[in-house]
Amino acid sequence: MENSCLFCRIVAGEIPASIVHRTGTTVAFRDIDPKAPTHVLVIPVAHHANVVELAADPAAAADVLATAARVAEIEGLDDGFRVIFNTGAHGGQEVFHVHAHVVGGAPLGPMLAGQ
Ligand code: 5GP
Ligand code: ZN
User: Fold this and answer.
1) Where are the active-site residues found (predicted)?
2) Is residue 111 part of a domain?
3) What does the mean pLDDT of the chain come to?
């Protein structure tokens, strides 16, 4: 755990979050500023800064994807959804503990803003 990391502190229960699902290696919780009717963040318990670091830990990466799929099931996103990993400055990443955004619950429009 990194004490200065917001999402490590959510994993530890030091900062409250609306938990949707938890496994031994992942936590899924609602985004504080949702961009769609369903907007859940899926994170590994272990601190990895971004998806590049997560990819170096294939078991953790697989667990994050499995939890994302489970969240879609729990949230009833039967008509589809998106899984997004914002990465680095151009990707608009703001929190440097890797997280998959699971968004859905309505048609999401063009894949990128400005399209
Ligand atoms: P990023 O831009 O890094 O991909 O996404 C960070 C996300 O974390 C944003 O969608 C933001 O709304 C969410 N977020 C930031 N702080 C908190 C918080 O304290 N709690 C929760 N649940 N979400 C947060
Ligand atoms: Zn962290």
Assistant:
1) 99 (tele-amp-histidine intermediate)
2) no
3) 97
